């Protein structure tokens, strides 16, 4: 994804909303993949039903903590690695989703007043 340079005018609002929607879709896709990996691990290594695997994976991914206690070495290793991954994934996914809004705010604050007006009406970059 290309963000406009600070010398370029602000992206028009309708194009900014499209960009924000696109990054939200990407972020939700990353959540879905992360959840699927967690569910598969909990289903295979903990021998949980799919619904219990979903609950455990979503609890870890959201930072709440697991419900099931790992019994085997493989389950314990998976649980620890998935918990570490989840902590980083949440930060990365939030960055992906909120990057356009943060970029627009910073771009707006550093734009000249005339550029702010042109950015709202022009359909440039």
Could you describe the 3D structure shown?
The protein has 125 residues and is mainly alpha-helical. It has a single domain, classed as Helix Hairpins (Orthogonal Bundle), CATH 1.10.287. Helices cover 74% and strands 0% of the residues. It has 4 helices and no strands. The chain has helices at residues 13-45, 50-61, 73-110, 113-121. Helix 1 packs across helix 2 and helix 1 (13-45) runs antiparallel to helix 3. The longest helix is centred in the C-terminal third of the chain and has 38 residues, at 73-110. The chain is elongated, with a radius of gyration of 20 Å. It starts with 12 loop residues before the first helix and ends with a helix. Residues 121-125 have low confidence and may be disordered.
User: What CATH architecture do you see?
Assistant: Orthogonal Bundle
User: Count of DSSP helices?
Assistant: 4
- Number of domains in the coordinates? 1
Return Rg in Å: 20 Å
Order of helices and strands: HHHH
Beta strands, count = 0
Distance between the first and last residues' Cα: 12 Å
Biggest β-sheet strands, sense, barrel: none
Q: Topology of this structure?
A:
Layout: H1 13-45, H2 50-61, H3 73-110, H4 113-121
Helix pairs in contact: 1-2, 1-3
Essential attributes:
125 residues; 4 helices; Helix Hairpins; mainly alpha; single chain
Task: Characterize this entry briefly.
The chain is an all-alpha fold. The protein has helices spanning 13-45, 50-61, 73-110, 113-121.
């Amino acid at each position: 994804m290309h963000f406009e340079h600070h010398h370029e005018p602000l992206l028009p609002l309708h194009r900014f909303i499209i960009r924000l929607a696109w990054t939200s879709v990407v972020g939700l896709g990353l959540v879905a993949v992360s959840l699927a990996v967690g569910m598969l691990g909990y289903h295979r290594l903990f021998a949980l039903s799919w619904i219990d695997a979903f609950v455990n994976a979503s609890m870890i991914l959201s930072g709440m903590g697991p419900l099931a206690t790992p019994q085997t070495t493989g389950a314990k290793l998976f649980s620890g690695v998935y918990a570490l991954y989840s902590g980083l994934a949440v930060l990365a996914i939030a960055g992906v989703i909120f990057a356009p809004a943060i970029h627009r705010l910073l771009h707006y604050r550093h734009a000249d007043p005339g550029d702010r007006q042109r950015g709202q009406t022009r359909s440039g970059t």
